[in-house]
Structure formats: structure tokens, C-alpha cells
Design goal:
6 copies of one chain form a homohexamer.
Chain A: E1 6-11, H1 17-30, E2 35-40, H2 52-71, E3 76-79, H3 87-93, E4 98-100, H4 101-112, E5 116-120, H5 126-136, E6 142-147, H6 161-176, E7 181-184, H7 193-200, E8 204-205, H8 207-220
Parallel strand pairs in A: 1-2, 1-3, 3-4, 5-6, 5-7, 7-8
Helix pairs in contact in A: 1-8, 2-3, 4-8
Chain lengths: ~250, ~250, ~250, ~250, ~250, ~250
């Protein structure tokens, strides 16, 4: 069998079209021939995600997109924000596989290095990364976390300053952490991975492209989200008001 | 100083008025004289919470209520669903302390027993309880988890069957788990704790009343959610569409 | 029901009357109206507790006080030394709830911040705090531990030097640890919490007052130490010699 | 870019040609068009791997094959034995990515279920699986381990008895473990995954095919084993005697 | 150098002369030629140790004996109760090495098996064993804990019934736990280890004899309790009343 | 019984005769009278072990020596390389006890200090030490790891430079880590332990001598590797080619 003629829904949980484009371009570069990347972001929500509150807002947008994607019979869903907002809720809702970019990047990192470092945006988001490391089981595989101390959207302001700070943090991490790889901690950094990998001479990993390939892999393996047990479809119940459109 | 003349907002994350009433009554029984319990539930959302998807929906309702509560200058917020949905997001949004009923019950359990058991509703919710135990650090303090295998709302159907099953599971847990206490794993069980404590002769703990007292305690200690670091107020950004009412 | 007309026994495990007074005053400030604080310390023992040996001595004094408190039908016991010496032994002996000030402060800290720092006295006591974090499940919630490198009784020498060093360590911890709250690691620091909370603008938590409120809370919840299983009363056996007064 | 025209070296660490064939066939079924599967096994070594001793023998064969594969400029190496024997040593030696089938299966399992069960051959190999779960960070994601209590080569004896026992254990695991997915704990079970997935209605995961797709993914992502730090090429030193052929 | 002409103080923390004799005899059987076993127990204290309260009492007796032993210049101290009561306090007080029988047995068990089971006396003591496994780092090495549900002194009542129950539990543990070794969870079982080892055909480990050999080993290695840092001698302070005899 | 007239096989997993001699001399110094140290190293293999690849080579030599030792009826086997290469495989093969020098040193360290530091050779070997700490359960007992950044054989080059760097790292570790003891992370440092212990005034622990005494202890305790379960003798199977000499 082959990995071709798939449709993967790339969900940017925030409403920034710029970031959606950056991530879509990166995803298309790495996708197999015949894999279509359906890049979407919620019409309503937060322009960027920099904390638990933003994640809660974004999760609703993610779920609406997953529902739409399921109705469009996409072959997989990517949650393209480093906090993997709504991951397990999305897995309940989806028929196809769902992969978050944080888990995708972390899984790949453990395949190429014994320990990795994370470079993300604002310090306040570090707690989210730490919780994910803990939940996914990769705490011991992460040597250190770093923040460039610039907001997510600075990656999209055209100045290149955020990109420069990411680069500096990656160089510092390589020198000081004893890590063999670096995980980029924001979807907005997706387009930096390959050049930084070349410049630094160690794997610098972007979760968006990693997730594309993991979805393709699951599809090729004929594996999808288990509908047995706690990831089964949500129990049917009348969702009221602004949530009515999420009714199954 | 005293614990009197507080207003605690008791947020039932689901839309069931019946459960809201049960929890409000329990909360008022245990509250200090002068503490007002402002019991609310979202107008829109899910009638019950039995998985990650339901939690994601409920979280938005929780945040709306926290915002309303903050504007009404309540002295604390309780998230009255055993999954503590939206806990950290709510802490970002709140000025006053926020306590979830799962953490409240678990904290109290560790003060009266070396290990506790949890009795909850549907098996599919066990994963949520396990994640909370892991995140809060109480994995080793929990000897076993049990599910009565009835939906949340069966606690509210007047038949008493669910209550009977809770009772049976608690008795079984006492006999088999080597636990010194039992944590009730659903807000809808709030009214059962004291009679089961008497009948079983071990602490059977309800998180709603525990949370009321923890909020009062934090207030008396002049402690509130830290606004330094990752629980600081959400960064101001324009939330669009159905989320506009959550703008700060 | 109400929290009034309780008698809480505040046990200072060391023999320092000065520290007993400081802690009693702090406890009374935070206690509910009608709660009496019965502050005691052993007549015999160690003037301060700065290691495992001192703790072992202090534990016997704690148990004698718990026994006396039980005979006086107090409504709860506080072990007011940051190592929580004799906590589980005291719970076996007690009918009423027993709370240690280290656990009390740590529990409260996790309700207001995602991570906390600890500031204590001598470096040699850090191992005790680390063991407690490990045993209580809060290892991941503690970002760092700091010692002022002055003995416990320097807090009681009237010079204010120790208090100044605590203040400096708290400021350093806020700047460097990425913690949202600070736990004061010695009962003798009890009176510093509220002013430091105001000065630093983050929760600085004292376990003595936290424990007072937790005991009141357990009482209001009609929860007490489980007498089923491993916290049941000690098996009756003839304790000889200097321990005879501990016979049940 | 595309995933085509890759050469992946599938290394069966034992000397069983039958098992090599079974795994090669499975690998080819799942490989992308244009991916060549170069299936090899050591000429010398152990006919099956059922303990740490067998693994130690097999590791040398793995390394010889990795060296040969590197000289043949293969694009990736798969260690096709559930203990992932020699994984980190192989990563030191390799230029291309190296993936073990145990890690591959476990990673994929965590993407489709909250917990998985493992079904393997002899009870004495369970310790190896437990160590891998611990090392990879998936301990909490594994609900239970099961052994069919038949040797590895019974999967290759044509009787189908071992296959039947695997099937029975998988059914039992689904019923009893509360797992949403099952990981097959032996390369010799590779050909069973897809039919069992269909029959049981939950993901039953084979590490061989999972590893093929992970190698393809790493290649598409232009990620390879980090040569910075502890996975750098072995330090050149004269290997003597029977090991001379492993000299770099 | 040699292991001869040592004096090891074997401290039975309870006041039972019978148990002291049993343990002394076992210790002498295993001691090197020239090693003298100075078996002592406190004159005052508890006749047996079956909980945290008993341990607290026993700890004081242990410390008095350690002080006496230090003044008598013994070459090492053994704390011969499975809870290792007062271990770290004793290490502060001692110049020579101090070894507890629980840690001794657990360390040895990890050298001969990948996992071990524990067989102890009363169920209420299981919590103590679990805490030690956690503190020493051997949680994962322990497959299961079992209690014969008879008090400690039943081992000393001459009926042999407790010994028979220990034997039955060991046989059950071998059959059911998948453990390669068994740790006897009470000093009163010391004399059973060698015959059970022969009968069961797996290592059945007694901590008393293990501790004797570990002390001899530390002495031969010229290693003793570190007096640098948190195990340094207790800070000199006036211990009052019944504790005055513990003044340094 | 006595510890005399034992034959312990000291296996240096690398082919360096110089290191074998250094370790043999250290072992003989600490051995009991009547204990013979049979020091061996593989005729074929790697001259030093500085990574996973080297360990894999060395493991085969270890197993050949264990087989030879078993045929010569030695009373125990020591794997004298800090990575404990092939430890569990050797335990399967051996009748007598097998102890690795890393585990030996770490076990002893936990008996004399609450935390220890490790000083080893090349940074690339730190991952091996970290994995052992994790596997043995001593992660929390290790405060820090240090590398002198010189290859193993520099310890054998007669210049003393490596020894000087070890000394400097130990002094730094004592000053900065808050550790009470230091574990020497290479068999080639065996002869430094006792002088550094004297100079630094804290236990500096060599695993070679520790292992000698642990083997003697297991023998005195009549404990040997469990042959029940996963450490049972390897299943008989025809090992082919260069491995034929390992056939049972």
C-alpha cells in the first residue's frame, strides 16, 4: 500500500492567517506526493496562544475544525500549537488520527538523541511544555527549556528579530545543555528547523512537519485513534447555545 | 481576622440545575457563618461532563463564570467537576483563589489517610482522574480507582440507584484496597459524603465542601492566586466572535 | 454548621518558648473567631530542630503533647516544625486531625502557583525538606530550595539579621527560580509571611497559619484521621521506663 | 521532497531466516512506493532472542549489519527485535537513523490510545519490556504486560498455535486491562497486527511496520541520528580479534 | 587488610530479649571470624514495633544505643528492625557506619534478582515498607508486598505458627509475583532465611545477616558515615530532661 | 561460617592489561584473607570503553570470561567497568553472584551519605551513568555528575594528569554539589579512592573494591543469582560462528 492521496487537516488553533500560512508551507514541503494539506484556523478565537487561558479558547476552535474535518472525511488532524491544546478531546471527536505538534517533535527527538532541549517563546508558556513532558513521559529526555522572551506573533512581524533570538537560544542550548537535539517550541518556528539543523549540525526539530509524517505513518499502518475505551466518541448529549454546532 | 462575609462562587461546569442545587446545598452546609455561596452554572454548554470533549466545552463556561465572578468581586471560585476543567486557565483569569473539587478532595484525603481510593461514575472518566493524580503528585497516595459504570446524570434521576452503587463501591474499596479514606469522584455525589463517612467509619471525602473550606482558608491566610509568572492575567488580545465576551 | 468553639493544639516540637509564642501569635491572628489556640511545647527536649537527630528527640515530645491533647479533647493538633516530625506516629495516636506545617504550606502553595520555592534555615536541613517533597508528592512543584545558613534560634535572637536574610533569599528566589510562590521553611518565620507577601507581591506562605485553617477545615468537613488501617491507634503494649507515660 | 527511493536496512538480530522473511514481507507491505527494504540477519549468532544473554550476542550481529549498511549507504536501520538490542550502540555507529521495533510500536501506541497492553512470548522476556518502558518514558502508558508462554520460534513452526495464543491474549487484554491498544511484543508477530486490528476493533500494533514508517519520516524530515554528544561515532580504537571487522 | 577483630553493635530497637537472641545468633553465624557481635536492645521502650508510633519510641532507644556504642568505639551499628527506625538520626550521631536491616536486605536483593517480594508481619506495617522502597529508590524492584497478619511477637511464641505462615507466604509469592527473590520483612524472621532459601530454591533474604556483612564491607573499604553535610554530628545543644543522657 | 578461601573473578571488560593490574591490586588490598582475586580481561575486544558501542563489544568479552569463570567454579564475578556492561546477561550465564562496579559503588554510597556525586572520564559516558542511576533507582541519590574530559586510558599513561583532574573534580564536587560522598566513575580510578577519601575528608568510593566485598558478602550469606525467572540460565540454543564458544 502507499501513503499517497491523503488529505491531512492542519489546524492552527489560533486565528493568525500568517502563522497558518507558514505552517502550511512547511507541511507541504515535507508531505508525501499525493498528500494534500488542508490548512485551517478557527474564524473565531485568539490571535495567538500564550497561556492556559488562550489554550482553552483555542481548544474550542480546534474541536470545531476537527468536526468539520471529520465531516469532510480528512485522513488525519494536526493540532499545530506547541501546547497540543485539546489533544485528547480531539481524539474523542475524531475518526481519523490526531497528532499534536509538541508530541510529534518530542517523539522524533527521542529517536535521534538521548536528550533534547526546547526553545520556545514566552517564559509563561514553559509550564505548559513541562506539563506535556511529564504527561508524555519525556521529562528525563529533556535536558533544558529556554524561552526567547518574545510573544508568538513576533515570529510573524517580518522583522526577523524573533528568528534571530531563536537562533541564539539554539546555539546556547547546544553549547550548554549537553543535548543532542533541539525541539522548536512554537508552530511559528516551523520554517526555521531545516536551516538551523544545517547551521548547528544537530537535529533541530519542528513539530508541524513531524506531525505530517506521523499522520501519514499511522495511515499507512492502518492505525487510527482507538474508539475503544476513553477515546471513544463523546457520549451524545445536547450541547446548547454557542456550542450547538458541536453536537454530533 | 475572621472568615466571615465572604462570597464564594461555586461553578458547576455543566448545565444541570439539579446538580448545581445539590452542590450548592452541600456547600452551604459546610460554609462558615457569613460565607455566601453563589452557585452558578453556564447557560450554555454540556448537561454533564464525561470525557475530555465535554471538559473542553465546560471549560469555556467555567471561564465565563470566572470572569463574571471577578467582575462581581467574589472572594473565590470553585470549579465543581471532578476533572477540575480549566483550572489553570481559570487561575490566570481570576484575581481571587480558584480551587477544583478534585484537587480539594485529594489534598484533604492525604491529611487523614496514607492512601485513598477514588469512586467515580463512568469508566471512561478514569483516565482524567489518573492524569490529575499524576499532575498533582498524588499517584502514590491513590491505592485504586473504581467506576460505578453509570452516567453522571443518573445521580440526579431520583431513583437512588446510582447512590446505591456508589455506596457498594465504597464498601468494596474499603474491604479490598487497603485505603484509609475514599474520595468521591463526581460533584453529583457531594451529598453522600457525610452519611457514607458515618456508615463506613472511614473518611469519605467530597470535593465541593472541601473546596469551600480551602477557599475560606486561603482568604483567611490572605493568599490568592499568584499573579507573578505563568498564572498572571492572560495577555490582552482581541478574542473574536463567540469569545468576544471573554475579552479582558 | 460553623467553625467556632474549636480548640486546636499548636505543638512546637522544640522547647523554645520564644518560638512557641511567635507561632501562637501568628496562629491566633489567622484562627476563626471562637477557635482557641492551645500553644504548647515539650518541657523536655531540644531547644531547636536542625537535623534528623533533633527531630527524633522532638518526636517524643510531640507524641506526649498529642496524648495530652487527646486527653484534653482538643479538636486538632498542629506539628509546628517544618520537618513535620512524628507526623504519622502522631496520627496513629490522635483521635482528632493532625497537620504538619510543612505539608500545610506545601498544599496551600500548590493551590496558588504552579511551582514554589522553599527558604529555610541551615543547609543541613535541606535533605529533610527534599524527603518531604518526595513523600508528599510535591517534588515537581518545588522549583528550588534555599537556606539562609543561620541556625533556627537566630530567628529568635532579636537582631533581625535572620529575618533580613530570609527576606533577601525570598527576593532572590522570586527573581531566579521561576516560582510563583515561596514557602517559608521554618516555624520561626511564621510572622514574616504576610509582610513578605505584600512586599514581594507573590504568595509567601507560612505553614503555621495554613495548618490552623486546614484543621478548622477538616473539622468543618467532619473529617478526622482515619482509624481504619495503618493510622489506627497504636496496638496496646506496655511501654517501659521513660516511655511509660505514653502508654494508652 | 518525497519519501521515495530510500533503502531501509531491516536487521533481524537473530539468525532465523523464517522470521527475517516474515518481517521483510510485512515491512514491504507498509513501505512507501520506491522504498526498498534490505532485509538481513547475522550469519552468526542466536536463532532466537529470549533474554539478556541472547540480546548480548545479537547486539554484535546488529552492529556488524549496521556497519555493512552504513558502508552500503542505506538510509536507515531497523533493529527488528522487541528488546531493541544494541539500539544506542547502533546509533553511535550509524550515520543514518536507527529505530528499534519496540520503541516504534510504543511511540505509535501513545498516539492512538491513552494506555496500551503488551503481548509477548516468554515470561522471562517481560523484564526487558519493562526496562524499555521505563527507559523510554512509557511506563504509565502501559496498562499491562502479557506473555503467551511459548518460545519465539514457535511463531515460526507452522502450527499456528502461537498465533492462536497471541490472539487469545489480545482478546483477554482488551477485556481486562482497560487499554485502548495492544503492542505486539515480538518481531515474529509482525504479520498478525492488521488482522487482529480488524478482528478486535482496536489498534494492534506491530513495531516492524511502525519502524519502517518512522525511518521514512525521519528521512523526509531530514533528521538523522545526532552526531553531537553521546551518539557521536565511536572513538576510533583498535578492536582486536573477532571484533576487528568492526573497526571503523 | 582484613575483616577481622571488628566489633559490630547489633541494635534490636524493641525490648524483646528473645528477638535480640534470635538476631544475635543469626548475625554471629554469618559474621567473619574475629568479628564480635555486640547484641543490645533498649532497656526501656516497646516490646515490638508495629507502626509509626512504635517506631518513634524505638528510635530513642536506638539513639541511646548508638551513643553507647560510639563511646565503646564499636566499628559499626545495625538497626535491626525492618522499618530502619531512626536510620538517618543514628547516622548523624555515629562515627562508624550505620546500616538498617531493611535497606541491607533490599540492596542485596537487587544484586541477585531483577525483582523481589517482601513478606512481613501485620498489614499495618506495609505502609512503612512502601515508604522505605520509595525513599531508597527500590519501588520498581519490588513486585509485591505480603503480610502474614500476625504480630511480630508471634514469631517468638514458640508455636511455630508464624514461621509456618511466613513459609506459606513465601511459596505463594514465588508462584504469583514473578519475583526472583524474597525479602523477609521482620528481624524476627532472621533465622528462617537460609532454610527457606534451600526449600524454595530462590534467594530468601534476611536483613540482619546482610547488614553484618555490609558493615564489615564498609569497614574493609575504610568507608564510614560521611560527616560532611547533612549527616554531620548533631549540632551541640542542651537536651533537657529525659533526653539529657543523649547530650554529646 | 567464614569468608575465606573464595575465588573471585575480576573481569576487566576492556583489553588493557595496565588497567587490569591497577584494579587487581586494589581488589587484593581489600579482599578478605583467603580470598583469591582472579583478574582477567578479554584477549579480544576494545582497549577502553567510552560509549555504548564499546560496551557492546566488551559485553561479549565479559560473557566469555563469565563462562570460563563458571567452568573454573569461581565463587563470584565482578564486571569492572563503570557502565556495568552485560550485567544482566552475565547473571543469566553465571551460577555464582555477579556484581558490577557501578552498582557496587552506588549502593555503598547510599549507605554513607544522603546524596553522592559521580566523577567520570569523558562527557559522552555521562548518559550511561544516568541510565544506570535510573535503572538502579538511585537517580534521587545522585546530586551531580562530572566528567574530567579525558579518555579512560589517560588514567594509565603514567603522566598523572588524569589523576590530578579527578582530584580537582572531586574537590569541586564537594564544594558545590551538597553531596556527602563521591563515586569514582571509572575502574581505572580504583587506586585513587582511599587517598582522596583521606584528603577530602568525605567518602570517595571505588566500585572495584566495593564489588569484591559485596561478592564476599553474598557468598557469606549463601545468596547467589536467582535462577528462578528472568535470570535463569540462557535457554539452550545453538550459537553459531564466532559465538559457538559461548554455547552452554
Amino acid at each position: 500500500m502507499t501513503g499517497s492521496s491523503l488529505c491531512i487537516q492542519l489546524i492552527n488553533p489560533n486565528t493568525s492567517l500568517g502563522m497558518t500560512e507558514v505552517m502550511a508551507a512547511t507541511a507541504r514541503k515535507v508531505a508525501s506526493p499525493g498528500t494534500e494539506i488542508l490548512a485551517v484556523c478557527p474564524e473565531e478565537g485568539a490571535p495567538s496562544i500564550e497561556g492556559h487561558f488562550d489554550e482553552a479558547i483555542a481548544t474550542l476552535g480546534v474541536l470545531q475544525q476537527v468536526k468539520a474535518g471529520r465531516e469532510a472525511s480528512v485522513d488525519g488532524h494536526i493540532i499545530a500549537c506547541f501546547g497540543d491544546p485539546g489533544l485528547l478531546a480531539a481524539r474523542e471527536l475524531a475518526r481519523a488520527p490526531v497528532v499534536g505538534i509538541a508530541e510529534a517533535a518530542m517523539h522524533m527527538a527521542t529517536l535521534v538523541a538521548t536528550r533534547f532541549s526546547i526553545v520556545t517563546t514566552l517564559p509563561r508558556t514553559l509550564v505548559i511544555a513541562r506539563h506535556l513532558l511529564h504527561q508524555y513521559g519525556f521529562e528525563r529526555h529533556c535536558a533544558a527549556l529556554h524561552a526567547i522572551d518574545l510573544p508568538v506573533l513576533s515570529l510573524d512581524d517580518g522583522s526577523g528579530m524573533a528568528q534571530q533570538k531563536v537562533r541564539e537560544q539554539c546555539i546556547k542550548a547546544k553549547q550548554n545543555d549537553g543535548s543532542g537535539a533541539i525541539v522548536l517550541g512554537c508552530g511559528g518556528m516551523a520554517d526555521l528547523a531545516q536551516e538551523l539543523t544545517l547551521e548547528l549540525g544537530i537535529p533541530v526539530i519542528d513539530g508541524v512537519s513531524a506531525a505530517v509524517r506521523l499522520i501519514e505513518s499511522l495511515h499507512a499502518l492502518r492505525l487510527t485513534t482507538s474508539k475503544f475505551g476513553d477515546l471513544d466518541y463523546p457520549l451524545p448529549k445536547p450541547l446548547s447555545g454557542r456550542f450547538a454546532d458541536l453536537n454530533n
